[in-house]
Amino acid sequence: WHFNLLNMEEIDLILDDTKERMDKSIQFLISELKKIRAGKAMPSMLDGVMVEYYGTPTPILQVASITTPDSRTIFVKPWEKTIIQDIEKAIINNDLGLNPQNDGENIIINIPALTEERRLVLVKQIKGEGEKGKISIRSVRKESNELMKKLSNEGLSEDAIKDGESEIQKITDSKISRIDEIIKSKETEITTI
């Protein structure tokens, strides 16, 4: 971030970078929330599962097909029968609270309906992830504002910097409210099953 030419382009660069980094925080939040079970069987529940495959931790999707024949069942069909135990072990060790059954050829996972208690735990977890997302957004805002202030040391006018900071705040507000929408939607998914 060394600026010699002082013009609006630097401010635009900072603003674009701010948006991009905040969007990455939101994408990360979305991927974290996908791991939180809503009580409905979804192949994405197993996204984070890594299977020992010839000594290498490998994403489950690279060693098996995953389908959901109904809203309460996940069906995992290994591409090689020899790794069925490894897949089963990986699912158990992944702390998803899932109990896979193996019929020798496939792994069947029954998804229990959520208890009220479990829903409350999940909602708390969702809010926690939302909070982490907001902290990440605010930290990007802080760094971007510091970059704006550096421009004033290099001769950019106070007004231009104030405008830039105000633009950063608008971006921040819109990303924070996007996080609120995502969290609300995920909570609704958990509490209305």
Structure description:
The chain has 193 residues and is of the alpha+beta class. It contains 4 helices and 6 strands. The strands form 2 sheets. A 4-stranded antiparallel sheet has the order 3-4-6-5, with helices on one face. The chain has a two-stranded antiparallel ribbon with strand order 1-2. Helix 1 (8-34) runs parallel beside helix 4 (158-191). The longest helix is centred in the C-terminal third of the chain and has 38 residues, at 116-153. The radius of gyration is 23 Å and the shape is elongated. The mean pLDDT is 88.
How would the blueprint of this fold be written?
Blueprint: H1 8-34, E1 50-53, E2 56-59, E3 64-70, E4 73-78, H2 84-93, E5 100-102, E6 107-110, H3 116-153, H4 158-191
Antiparallel strand pairs: 1-2, 3-4, 4-6, 5-6
Helix pairs in contact: 1-3, 1-4, 3-4
| Helix proportion | 55-70%
Strand content: 5-15%
- Strand tally is 6
Roughly how many Å is the radius of gyration?
A: 23 Å
The strands making up the biggest β-sheet line up spatially as: 3-4-6-5
Largest sheet: 4 strands, antiparallel
Q: What is the structural class?
A: alpha+beta
Residue-averaged pLDDT: 88
How does the overall form come out from the CA principal axes? elongated
Number of alpha- plus pi-helical segments: 4
Uncertain spans, ≥5 residues at pLDDT below 50? none
Order of helices and strands: HEEEEHEEHH
Distance separating the two termini = 49 Å
